[in-house]
């Protein structure tokens, strides 16, 4: 084993020794991780239980070829490259490497002093190698793609022992509409601590890139709403507008019932969207985007299963462009105009229902069966679970992601801050202005508000 792969846990001090001891026990199958930060403990759990990454891996694997990025993403990568070079200049003599990755954790470029770049190359911390969590375990850039906000991974917090001599800080650039990562920026140092200003460098660099994305998303949302308004005048069938990810921007009263989204009321902020939780619609939107890239006049049709329907419903999907850029699609329900989508493209892969939800109590992971969870609540940058074992922080980094994971397991989004377990609703309370509040099953009689926009979906789900 070369010098970069040797690690002395005592070199990091008492705290480093404690983390290394916890890492050794966790690798051997124990679940108790005292002294380990929650973001790290959750990442270790993913690496061991979900990704099954070998903790004794000595280098990152070669990245699997990804589909070509969109022109908009190319702009993001170019901007991140410029920011990364600037951060590398600010580092001065610090023995560090600044890397830019795509959404899959593949390094697209890196900057730094030649000596550290050469040392990093021993671990494949170099272009065209993959540093996602599923490929290289817990690390700054890979874990940042899984979490929200900047992530610092130091020493024995890395899942792979070969990387314990490194400290990495990463942050992801996310699509402001879907919340999915587009790419990331990472700063890695060998056997030295990052300067206090490192977090500020990364956050500022990504904020500048994210700001441009938000402006574009706000403009495209407003233009998609205008296209819907114009089409609805001529349409006699249920109509909705969705973005390129299949999320709803606006839907009429009938389409909203089929999609399980608020009716006829656009969001005040045109970057906000609603997730209908219809895998086949998402697959159709993605197929339409591919076809529209080659033929702007393409129109397609297929059949999808909608909410509260036992039989599939026909839909027609028409791409919408603005200044030659695809911004979304208009979806008409009950019609079959256009090219029939191939069955393999129209149907999404079967969704595997989650068996358990992971919560955190201090440094301990709590594995919860779904009936134990009453509801999930978004609070700041955290998601909290109300459970039979008390209030626990969720391992899921966002309420949107948790909503998607649990949509087929009897959970429903009832408010921008709440997802509830429908089987745990005991009573429904009506306010004097008609607003709804859900009284949840349990000793505490906890109450969850229902937003006006989500009230129709709640009534349908409860057959009211």
From TrEMBL:
Q: Which UniProt keywords apply?
A: DNA-binding
- Keyword DNA-binding in annotation: yes
Q: Which InterPro entries match?
A: GAF-like_dom_sf (IPR029016), LytR-like (IPR046947), LytTR_DNA-bd_dom (IPR007492)
Give all residue intervals belonging to the HTH LytTR-type domain.
362-464
Q: Does the keyword Nucleotide-binding apply?
A: no
Show the Gene3D superfamilies listed in the entry.
3.30.450.40, LytTr DNA-binding domain
GO MF entry, a single one: phosphorelay response regulator activity
Q: Which PROSITE patterns match?
A: HTH_LYTTR
Instruction: Report what the protein is called.
Output: LytTR family transcriptional regulator DNA-binding domain-containing protein
| Source organism of the structure | Amycolatopsis carbonis
The major lineage groups are: Bacteria, Bacillati, Actinomycetota, Actinomycetes, Pseudonocardiales
């Amino acid at each position: 084993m070369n010098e970069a792969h040797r690690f002395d846990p005592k070199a990091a001090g008492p705290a480093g020794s404690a983390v290394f001891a916890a890492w050794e026990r966790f690798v051997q199958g124990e679940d108790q991780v005292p002294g380990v930060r929650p973001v790290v403990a959750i990442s270790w759990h993913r690496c061991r239980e979900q990704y099954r990454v070998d903790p004794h891996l000595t280098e990152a694997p070669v990245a699997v070829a990804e589909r070509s990025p969109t022109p908009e993403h190319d702009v993001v990568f170019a901007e991140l490259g410029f920011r990364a070079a600037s951060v590398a200049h600010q580092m001065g003599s610090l023995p560090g490497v600044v890397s830019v990755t795509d959404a899959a954790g593949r390094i697209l470029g890196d900057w730094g002093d030649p000596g550290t770049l050469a040392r990093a190359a021993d671990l494949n911390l170099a272009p065209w190698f993959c540093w996602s969590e599923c490929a290289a375990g817990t690390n700054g850039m890979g874990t940042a793609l899984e979490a929200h906000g900047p992530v610092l991974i130091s020493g024995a917090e890395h899942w792979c022992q070969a990387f314990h001599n490194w400290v990495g800080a990463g942050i992801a650039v996310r699509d402001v509409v879907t919340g999915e990562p587009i790419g990331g920026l990472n700063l890695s140092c060998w056997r030295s601590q990052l300067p206090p200003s490192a977090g500020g460098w990364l956050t500022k660099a990504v904020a500048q890139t994210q700001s441009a994305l938000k402006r574009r998303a706000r403009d495209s949302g407003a233009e998609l709403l205008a296209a819907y308004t114009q089409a609805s005048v001529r349409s006699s069938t249920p109509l909705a507008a969705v973005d390129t990810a299949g999320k709803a921007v606006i839907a009429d009263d009938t389409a909203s019932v089929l999609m399980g989204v608020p009716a006829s009321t656009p969001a005040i902020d045109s970057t906000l969207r609603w997730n209908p939780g219809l895998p086949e619609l998402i697959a159709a939107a993605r197929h339409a985007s591919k076809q529209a890239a080659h033929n702007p006049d393409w129109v397609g049709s297929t059949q999808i299963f909608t909410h509260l329907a036992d039989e599939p419903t026909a839909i027609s999907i028409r791409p919408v462009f603005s200044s030659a850029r695809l911004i979304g699609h208009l979806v008409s329900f009950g019609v079959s105009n256009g090219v029939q989508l191939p069955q393999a493209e129209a149907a999404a892969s079967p969704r595997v229902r989650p068996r358990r939800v992971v919560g955190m109590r201090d440094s301990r992971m709590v594995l919860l069966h779904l009936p134990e969870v009453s509801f999930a609540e978004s609070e700041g940058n955290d998601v909290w679970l109300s459970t039979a074992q008390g209030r626990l922080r969720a391992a899921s980094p966002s309420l949107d992601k948790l909503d998607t994971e649990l949509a087929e397991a009897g959970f429903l989004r009832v408010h921008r801050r709440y997802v509830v377990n429908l089987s745990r609703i005991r009573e429904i309370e009506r306010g004097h202005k008609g607003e709804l509040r859900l009284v949840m099953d349990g000793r505490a009689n906890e109450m969850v508000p229902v937003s006006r926009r989500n009230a129709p979906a709640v009534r349908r789900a409860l057959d009211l």
